[in-house]
Known about the structure:
The complex is a heterodimer of chains A (174) and B (206).
Chain A: H1 2-6, E1 15-16, E2 22-24, E3 29-31, E4 36-37, E5 42-45, E6 56-58, E7 63-64, E8 69-72, E9 76-78, E10 83-84, E11 89-91, E12 93-95, E13 109-111, E14 115-117, E15 122-123, E16 128-129, E17 134-135, E18 140-141, E19 146-147, E20 156-158, E21 163-166
Parallel strand pairs in A: 1-4, 2-5, 3-6, 4-7, 5-8, 6-9, 7-10, 8-11, 9-14, 10-15, 11-16, 14-17, 15-18, 16-19, 18-20
Antiparallel strand pairs in A: 12-13, 20-21
Chain B: H1 7-21, E1 26-27, E2 32-33, E3 39-41, E4 46-48, E5 53-54, E6 59-62, E7 75-77, E8 82-83, E9 88-91, E10 95-97, E11 102-103, E12 108-110, E13 112-113, E14 132-133, E15 136-138, E16 143-144, E17 149-150, E18 155-156, E19 161-162, E20 167-168, E21 176-179, E22 184-190, E23 195-198
Parallel strand pairs in B: 1-4, 2-5, 3-6, 4-7, 5-8, 6-9, 7-10, 8-11, 9-12, 10-15, 11-16, 12-17, 15-18, 16-19, 17-20, 19-21
Antiparallel strand pairs in B: 13-14, 21-22, 22-23
Amino acid sequence: MKRRALFGAMGEGCVIERPGPFLWNADRIRLGDRVRIGRESRLQVNLESGMGHCGIDLGDDVVIGAGCQFTASLGITIGPGTRIGDEVLIADNTHRYEDVSTPIPFQTVRPVGAVRIGANAYIGRGAVILGGVTIGDGAVIVDRAVVHEDVAPDEWVSGMPTVVLGAPVATHRR
Amino acid sequence: MSLRPSLLVRIRTHVRSSVLRARFARMGRGTAFQGPGPYVVGGSRIALGNAVFGRPFVRLEAIPSSHSPPRGPILTLEDRVYLGFHVSVFATRGVTIGRDVYLNGHVTMYDHYPPMESGYAAPEASGLPVERVGEVSIGDQSWIGWGAVVMPGVRIGIHSVLGANSVALEDVPDYCVAVGNPAVIVRRYDAQAKRWVSVKPERNGP
């Protein structure tokens, strides 16, 4: 299948919905088994930053919703079983804006830090994960939260900037 | 590997932009949209400058209503505007996006609230204006983050940044960084000292 050749690695039973995904440097994107990528998503690896190893690694059974964008200059790693909602942005870089004599779109992209998301986490619709963030196993990011700090395992966070809602009681744990 | 799209994609984009030109009141040189999309409503009231670039699934709607100017474009995109994935712009009165503006994916802006002729009205106890209509303008060189919303009547200044998922309810001056829902200014460029300084937010976050 053509799709298999497109990615750097692709496990068994993956489902890639159309239209999309829109890929840049897809040979740096590795998919595990049974990964599902929703329609209209965009997976992009920038090689301009000159970092040696960088790419997007999706573990087994990762589910990504529609209209997501993952932008990697340093690396995005998502653990097995993590589910990601629609319209989620995961960007390990940001735009420079400090030079007032140059329009912001013409300033370069600044890599911030690799993003690591653990296993069985849940990321709600419209959330934004910024650079350098590590999200622990089983953490829950509530819809439309903007995460700029690390999230401990099994923790729930929401809001902008994020507020920790605490860990769920034992009965709620998966 | 180059970030530039392949030759086939570039040819297809060129053909598509030739077809699109007929749908807008004005469409400058080098303006192109990637498909699928853009979804255009009321293209005769939309003016696009030179070298505007749109990613797939862009939505541009210009729907004149009773408070619209009688003629002329009510949705104007100046030169070199970048529209990310799923950007939606709805105009009934006047939306102007300046030169070199960068709109990230899922940005939404509209100049009327609630939706026209929908019959919705905010409850009095909510403190929200029952109706809110006003021209929206984005200053030159500004950068609007992923999923941000610019509310009716809001003006974003020159070279300003609106953070991801922010909701701009009030004007953002020139050379500022605003984040949050509602958006508050967190950084500002000090022209005398020639550096960016942090600003203590007047309101706390959530």
